[in-house]
Each structure stands twice: as structure tokens, then as C-alpha cells.
Amino acid sequence: MQHQSLYRRFRPQRFAEVVGQPHLVRALRNAVREDRVGHAYLLSGPRGTGKTSTARILAKALNCEALTGDGEPCGICDSCTAVAAGTSMDLIELDAASNNSVNHIRDMTEKAALVSSGRRKVYLLDEVHMLSAAASNALLKTLEEPPSHVVFILATTDPNKVLPTIRSRTQQYELSLVGADEMAPHVRAIAEAAGAPVEDAVVDYVTERGAGSVRDALSALDTVLAAGGIPDDRADVNALVQALARADLAATLIAVAAATAAGVDARDLAERTARRLRDMFLVGAGVEPAELPQADITSARELSDAMGRRKNVRALEATGSALAQMPQSADRRLTLETALVGLLADEALGAGAPEAAPPASAPPTAGPAAARAAMAATTAP
Length: 381
What we know:
Elements: H1 6-9, H2 22-33, E1 40-44, H3 51-63, H4 78-85, E2 91-95, H5 102-112, E3 121-126, H6 133-144, E4 150-156, H7 164-167, E5 171-174, H8 180-193, H9 200-210, H10 214-227, H11 235-245, H12 249-261, H13 266-284, H14 294-307, H15 309-325, H16 332-348, H17 367-377
Parallel strand pairs: 1-4, 1-5, 2-3, 3-4
Helix pairs in contact: 2-3, 3-4, 5-6, 8-9, 8-10, 9-10, 11-12, 11-13, 12-16, 13-14, 13-15, 15-16, 15-17
């Protein structure tokens, strides 16, 4: 039998199973129970926080044949099982990243006018910010005069790229990263449900790797269970960060070389390093990220003290620069090495005179914009 990933096998089927989004669950369950469901919703938030899962649960509830008193779908009627199996004719899912033309949206809106077999027809548009301008305008026209039996659920990781006129015609809910205090019990429960109970060290590792994303955490748990233990994938980042803290150029390049020789992609190394540097910066500033286990907070504090605030910021800028340039780079490792060599050269020279600002169209290569790029890369899809 083909293995099914944990995040698909244990996808939430009821509102009560959605982790870490109480405001959203409460609002949607009340709307269903009191028959006050809107014609359009915009669910935004980082990847793996439950946007599409929640949308599917709402689709279940709207056509459930035996809705419970608290607004939960029964999960066993024909309509609920069809949604769970992905065969429902009343839930139409469209990936806006690959179906982003005006013709795709026009075809969808024409079909939306047709009567559904259930009480409501639900359209789920994932990554709606990827729609073309013409497609967005076509969607806007439908949202202005929606069919009474249709509910549109728009999901996005970047709500600021969605037309303001579309946002204004939806009920908007922002999903947040899940804190370690909720993620850890969830990871433990999933492992037990999968018949593979795990130790505290595994729970802490998986929680840290998830970084607030339930899907990423369960993917990490899958990896641990397949490997039979915690893989040693923190050593490369620790070695690199410690070398940067010492401003040791040779050790920095050796750390990058060792990681790539072990099969680690340079972008993955840069993303994990940026995440570590971000955690160090926040902890050093007196902020303890909710998604981090306590052991990682302690480790981040020690590294932050060793590196210092100024060097921490500049290292975050350097990794942000590398990550911003990698999509256009033919050699990701060289891009990362160049950024880190530049960082340590500036440190050795006392961070000399500032260079001229790059053109407005160029990706950020230094300064606060690069730091923001590095932080964003730790949560972007």
C-alpha cells in the first residue's frame, strides 16, 4: 500500500480539529449554526496553518445532512464523505497559481450560476493573489453580484497582493502560526494516532522544524519516523552560525562546503540559517517566539550573546541578500558564499563606507529590506 503523508492522513475533518485558530473556528461555527454564512471569505496566513482545511470543513458544514447543534458537520453523511474523498460536486477547488487566466475565472463564474445538488455550492480559490489582473477583475464582478446559492472562499499567503476591492467584498480572517504550546501536544497526538508514539526530544525537534506550520511539522514527523530517529540536520546550521559569530571566514566556508557535500541544498541551508538568526535576534531583544520550544530559546539566547546584536543583524541581512538572489542564480552555493564572504569582509574592515543604493527594481541586497526578506523566507511557501 502506498504511504500517505501524515498531514494528509490526519487533515482536520471538523472545526474542533483545527489547531491554533480559535477565532476563525468560533466565527465560522457560529455563522453555520445561526445560518449567517457570508457569500465570500478571505483566509490569509502562512503556509500550513489550515486555510484550505478550514475551507473544506466549511463546505462540509454548509451541505451536511445531519449538522450537529454546535455547527459541526456530522462527517458520515453522503455529502460529508464526498467532500472528504474529494469527489463532491458542490465543492470546486481551483489553484489560482496554475489557473490564473481570465478564461479560467469566467468559466468558473459561468458554472457558479448553475444550481447545485446541495444547499450551497462552494468555490475554493487557493493562492488567489496569483490571479492575473484581468482574472481578478472578472472575479470582482462576480463577488459584486454573487449567486445566492454560492459561497466563495479565497485563500492566500499574501493578502496584500489581492485587489483591495476584492478584499473589501469578503469577510477576512488571518490565520497565525501555531505556538509551541499547541503544536507539541498536537504532534504527540498525531504520532500516537499513527501508532508510533515518540519521545519528548522528537516532539521538540518536530515542533522547532515546523516553525508554526502544522503541515511542515507533520512532514518533519514523517521524516523522523522514516529515519528511525532525529536526523542530524541542526549541526550544519549551528556550525555556520558559530563560525559567523567568531567572524571566522575559513570556518564559515568549511561549514557551507560540509553541508552541501552532505547533500543539503544551499537554499535550504540559507533558509534554516536565516530562521536561526531571526530567532537569535528576537530572543536577544527579549522576545520569545511562541513557536519555539524552550530548549531552542535557551540555545538561541546563548548564540545571540556570543554574536552580539549588530553582527546578528548584519548576518541576517547577508542571508536575506543570498535568498533574494537565489531565484535568479545558476549557483546557489556560490551566491550564499559570496554573501557571507562580503559580510565577514565588512566586519574585518569595520563595515566601511556604505555603497550606492541598488536600482529600485533590484532585489534587496543589504539593509532592513534584506533582513525582512530573510525573515519572510522562513514562512513563505
